[in-house]
Write a structure and sequence with these properties.
The N and C termini lie far apart (42 Å). The protein has three helices and ten strands; from the N terminus they run αββαβββββαβββ. An eight-stranded antiparallel beta barrel has the order 1-2-7-5-6-4-3-10. Strands 8-9 form a two-stranded antiparallel ribbon. A hairpin with a 3-residue loop joins β3 and β4. The longest helix is centred in the N-terminal third of the chain and has 25 residues. The protein is α+β, with helices and mostly antiparallel strands and 194 residues long. It has a single domain, classed as Cyclophilin, CATH 2.40.100.
Length: 194
């Protein structure tokens, strides 16, 4: 009887742990595909570590906000930034600013997607960037160095990011590092997840 009880308890534990691990793996399953004029990029979002940032990004995706925007700031061996301007360099109207989740433990490593912001830590809205290399200087390091919030990572299409980063740039409307040939985000769509 005691042996049967121990086996039953063991089975319940295994099922519970497996269920927890399954739920844990579900937390990072939401993916967004950026269809760009250079090719497709698929980003896996981390809702567990960056819930506010992911919800904000998904709101813009679901509204079609990113469709027709460009990568307007491209610096090879640093990052590629987009999500704020149209091909004619018109800034798009955004929702309010969000809290900076940079101290979530996620790092600004190559391929991570991060919120762009102004000088104030809690000033991100719609613009994002993809790190082209490991950028430790952008990580959270205390109140005096609040960092930039990572909220996911490229899981397919890093070669496309490399192609974007290699684009020839110029100055347009007083902005530096703008690709000479516009690199357009044709669409941004959720392709998997809960």
């Amino acid at each position: 009887m005691a042996r049967k009880f121990r086996i039953s308890l063991l089975l319940v534990t295994v099922v519970f742990v497996a269920g927890c691990k399954h739920r844990e793996s579900e937390r990072m399953t939401k993916k967004v595909k950026l269809e760009t004029s250079k090719g497709d990029i698929i980003i896996e979002l981390n809702e567990e570590k960056a819930p506010v940032t992911v919800a904000n990004f998904l709101r813009y995706v679901e509204e079609g906000f990113y469709d027709g925007t460009i990568f307007h700031r491209v610096i090879q061996n640093f990052m590629v930034q987009g999500g704020g301007f149209t091909a004619d360099m018109r800034r798009k109207q955004t929702h309010g600013m969000i809290a900076n989740e940079a101290k979530n433990g996620l790092k600004n490593n190559r391929g991570s997607i991060t919120m762009a912001r102004m000088n104030a830590p809690d000033s991100a809205s719609a613009q994002f960037f993809i790190n082209h290399k490991d950028n430790d200087s952008l990580n959270y390091a205390g109140q005096l160095k609040p960092g930039y919030a990572v909220f996911g990572a490229v899981v397919e299409g890093m070669n496309v990011v490399d192609a974007i980063a290699a684009a020839k740039t110029t100055i347009r409307n007083g902005m530096r590092d703008v690709p000479v040939e516009p690199i357009v985000i044709k669409s941004a769509r959720v392709v998997s997840g809960r």
